[in-house]
Amino acid sequence: MRGRGVVQSHDAESQSSFGHRASEQERAFDLRDPYKLNRAPLLRGGKRRLSGLPSYAAVMISAAALVGLGVYVGRELVRPPQRPWEGLDPAREPRHITEMRSVQTGLRSNQQRPGYSSFACTGHKWEDDYLYHSCRFHDVCLNHTSMEFQYYVDPAEAETPLFYHYLNGHPHYTFPSDFIMTGHVHILPYTPWAPKVLHGRIPERHPYSPAPVAVYHSLNDFVGSFRHAMFDFILPVFNLLQLFRMYTPDFLLLEAQHQGHDPDAARFLLKPDDPARSLTRLISQNKVATPRDVVRAAPATSDATCFHTVLAGSGHLQARTPHLTASEARVRTSTFWAAAIANLGVEVPAAPARPVVTVITKKGRRAIENAAEIADALRQRFMGADVQLLDGNSLNSISVKARVEALVRTTVLVTPCGSLAALAYLLPPGATAVVMNFYHAETGANVQLDDAAFWNIDHITLAYYPVGPEDYEGTSDRPGCQKQKGDPQYEEEGALVNCNVRIADVERMEHVVGQAIRRWYAEFGDGGSAFGMQ
Description:
Low-confidence stretches: 1-55, 69-103, 325-329, 527-534
Radius of gyration: 26 Å
């Protein structure tokens, strides 16, 4: 058991007002109806008519407006300069804009230089399990020589603990070295981290980063996989910003200690030569930066760079964590999808007149070898639907925007399990992802390889397709694809986890897809028949 408890924090944020000024992209958000983006006339300068009000009421409203204007002008003369996201009153804006804004209200509006640092944490208590512990640190500085983050404490409060152990009352005057986990909680080696406590004011010579908030997060050796890049990095980082209500597209992605032995693994999907292909475009306007990048961007005469806010501890916020605490219930994939659409500038079309079924093809392991035959059968069965094949391998060579645009009209996605199943996160709200299971021959049971990755998905429906030994007959990759006894994961996954399938029961697939199409018609359709003219 280790220490945390009562936080003795003098947060400069406590005197701040919170708010956010909507960008043009954010004004297009309507999470209640994803097919009505860019259809909000009141958000594009439309005016409400007051002619129906009694004249007395109109006069009183005008008088109140004049008084408010005078108060506003007086306040603006003395307030510090605003950041772009400040100034809106959430109580007066439309509900769907407030819903998106709710993940941003933690951003600080105080522009004055505080003298000292402060922090706040949520999730599990550090004493119980530091792996599931998330914190925000205000006004900490990155030392350009040691590459340590420095936390400044008023010398007059040097004898005041930062926190107390919540069980034994032990005082902590510094942060334990394992106060935060910056990497994935299920991957070794662990990456514990904590800022270093210094007694004294933040030196005036230290410049502040222009970033309103930075997320300090470790990459690992597996992020060359689309699934791992999404679940181990993109979603946890976005979820951490949501958790503290601090999401803004201009946040800084700051890479912490690498979790593993292959830092180049990130070059394929997160740090490619072509920035348009980086998955970070889903959530950020900025590239992944390292502490060395921060040093290079600072004036040559400075020896540290300060940050208004640094968030850390997102490793447990990947979508595959089922036991989120109450404070983490704000993590929602519908907000992630809306942010991705806005950041990429994707035009969301009107609801299609017909459902669109997309069947993923691929070369490599876990492929559906008879995907084209399945698509033909679905066309025959559902004559009122558009059925298309999408080459999953081709998605690796196109921009992230093009990747999302390829799926934005999809009603039903049929995908192999594994990496490509993560495409489900890019589907529009109301869609269904039909994800293939794999068969564990040793136990005779179906296994959902990706189930843990979708615990918290809330904007689409998941449907798993069960397979049996007959679905592995006649495939081109056996027996070479099979795991052998003695493999560390053989008992858990069996021999066939990486093998291709050849769907034998086409009628079963028609049933699963048919249910998904019916759901789509219930939500978006006009009462038409999914079965066309049969």
